Automatic annotation (TrEMBL):
GO molecular function: ATP binding; ATP hydrolysis activity
Keywords: ATP-binding, Nucleotide-binding
Domain of life the protein comes from: Bacteria
Name recorded for this polypeptide: ABC transporter ATP-binding protein
Record flagged with keyword ATP-binding: yes
Species name: Homoserinimonas hongtaonis
CDD domains, per the entry: ABC_DR_subfamily_A
Domain ABC transporter as annotated: residue spans: 5-230
SMART domains: AAA (SM00382)
Length: 296
């Protein structure tokens, strides 16, 4: 498995804010990554660094084996779709689509046209006049039709309605299945994208607090629900990650369960369900906040 990105001890300091703090990780080729984290966690800063739009304070970044900063041979394989994308003032949507092949060697104009129909984007309208959602749709279309070997989507769908978001997820998965590439998606809509993600990176206060294969992550915790007494006896010797309850009912999150464990649970009348990715991320980032507050 080839690494498309290799980051070692990367730090980015803005004055007294350490937006990215001694981060090391790799990104494998042809997988879909989720870059998740709370507001101000460092996601956009990290993407800016990985796409050569900003300089690291310290540390080393390799993208396709080389530094991305001012490196055309790297950046021609990279597409970065961000929420705050700027276009020339007089640009119409069709100008964006026509100029895209200058930047992306794999640009597929027919596919872009099909996506324009899917998202109902008015191609003859000025970019400045588009609604918030239509502007996001233009970004999503460019990101998909660029077919760049490495594509970053930073919160790509501000203002996109639920139907358009679903079209984005469906098209991304279909196209990715036919033309595998590496996608890094940053979002707050974690549960919506959880089935899309193959690997999860969670960043909190500039540090990577989770770097895990999504399948392993999904199996890493289970919610056990039932009467308080049966739940308590089932979880008695286990590590409890989270607990809540109402009246005589309890809902407890525990670590991985074997098939024998599951049988015992079912035989005791307990219900088992996987923990949502969103819940896992919330717990992970809440914990580190509490630890941070304790140590502050
Ligand atoms: N140019 C800058 N100057 C000073 N501080 C900055 C600058 N850019 C980012 N920061 C700070 O760095 C931290 C990380 O910001 P960043 O935009 O990377 O977060 P994010 O995870 O993308 O957040 P969100 O989910 O809210 O978009 C924040 O505390 C932010 O205020």
């Amino acid at each position: 498995m080839n690494n498309v990105i290799d980051v070692r001890h990367l730090t980015k300091q803005f004055g007294n804010v350490r937006a990215v703090d001694d981060v090391s990780f790799t990104v494998e080729e042809n997988r879909i990554y989720g870059l998740l984290g709370r507001n101000g966690a460092g996601k956009t800063t990290l993407m800016n660094l990985l796409t050569g739009q900003d300089f690291a304070t310290t540390g080393d970044i390799r993208v396709f084996g080389a530094t991305p900063v001012e490196n055309a041979s790297v950046l021609q394989h990279v597409c970065f779709i961000k929420e705050s994308q700027k276009y020339p003032d007089d640009f119409l949507v069709k100008h964006v689509l026509r100029s895209a092949p200058w930047f992306f060697e794999n640009w597929d104009a027919d596919y872009a046209e099909q996506l324009v129909d899917d998202f109902r984007v008015p191609v003859k309208r000025r970019i400045k006049k588009l609604s918030r959602g239509q502007l996001s749709a233009v970004g999503v279309i460019v990101g998909l039709a660029s077919r760049a070997p490495l594509t970053f989507f930073d919160e790509p769908y501000l203002g996109l309605d639920a139907v358009a978001r679903q079209i984005f997820y469906d098209r991304l998965l279909e196209d990715y299945a036919e033309r595998p590439r590496t996608v890094i998606l940053s979002t707050h809509l974690i549960d919506e994208v959880s089935n899309l993600l193959e690997h999860v990176l969670v960043i909190d206060q500039g540090r990577i607090v989770l770097d895990q294969d999504a399948e392993t992550l999904r199996e890493s915790a289970t919610v056990v629900v039932g009467t308080r007494s049966s739940v308590d006896s089932f979880v008695a010797d286990r590590e409890v990650l989270h607990r809540e309850g109402v009246g005589g009912l309890a809902s407890v999150t525990v670590g991985p369960l074997s098939s024998a464990d599951r049988k015992v649970a079912y035989d005791s009348g307990l219900e088992l369900s996987p923990v949502s990715l969103q819940q896992l991320v919330i717990r992970k980032t809440n914990t580190s906040t509490q630890e941070f507050e304790k140590s502050a």
